[in-house]
Amino acid sequence: MKLLQIDSSARSHPHGEVIRRDLSTTTFPQITDDWNATYLEDAKLTPAQRSYLSTSNALIEELEAAETVVIGAPMYNFSIPSSLKAWIDQTVRLGKTIGYGPNGPHGLLTKKKVVVITSRGGDYEKGTPREAFDFQEPYLRHILGFIGLTDVTFIHAEKQAREEAAVSFAGAAERIGGVVIDQNQQVAL
Ligand SMILES: Cc1cc2nc3c(=O)[nH]c(=O)nc-3n(C[C@H](O)[C@H](O)[C@H](O)COP(=O)(O)O)c2cc1C
Asked: Which of 24, 70, 76 is the best mutation target for the ligand 1 pocket, counting ligand atoms within 8 Å of the beta carbon and taking the most?
């Protein structure tokens, strides 16, 4: 698929920057015993340890630099795709995105907006029989909050394997428009 994005609003952000990270075309290192290097002082790292941590460093720098983060996440087996879990494993890191004080851990990434857009084959809305099987939104809310990202908006395209898929998709697209308008209004204030 080739995507052409045309922006024509007079109030667009010509100096804004969009960083895109497609997790389906990237493989991150597995978390192994080498992850213990995250507890060492930078100056004490061997070249191999430095290389192992370079992916994590790059992903965290990217996250720190962003004011708004948009995450696209289909539901896989009631939760998130393993590629997104691999990204989380690289970005949740003591000393970088989590601090530890007398009251325990606290998130270090603050003042960012996060929008998570999900799609699911079934229907996990409140009051539906599958509501309790949604391990996607509760997990993402918790882990994002754990690193300080507490301003999180979820937009779900439910029922994508059902007849109502198109209607549900259109509803989600409309809600995305609402989030964009909200953000612009905040910029204008
Ligand atoms: C490996 C895999 C596992 C899935 N598991 C679930 C699931 O547990 N619950 C569900 O409602 N849909 C599940 N689905 C359906 C997807 O969530 C649905 O098709 C979604 O629209 C895919 O998003 P995408 O088109 O952005 O990739 C699964 C799909 C795949 C490929």
From this structure: 76
Mean pLDDT of 152-179: 95
User: What is the best residue among 71, 77, 83, 169 to mutate for testing ligand 1's pocket, by most ligand atoms within 8 Å of CB?
Assistant: 77
For every residue of 76-145, DSSP letters joined together read: BTTB--HHHHHHHHHH--BTTTEEEETTEEEE---S-EEEEEEE-SS---TTSTTGGG--SHHHHHHHHH
pTM over 0.90: yes
Distance of alpha carbon 45 from alpha carbon 59, whole angstroms: 19
Number of Cβ within 10 Å of residue 84's Cβ equals 19
161 vs 16, which has greater pLDDT? Answer: 161
Q: Which residues line ligand 1 (CB under 6 A)?
A: 74-78, 119-122, 160-161
Backbone φ and ψ of 16, nearest 5°: -70, 155
Given this model, what pLDDT does residue 102 score?
94
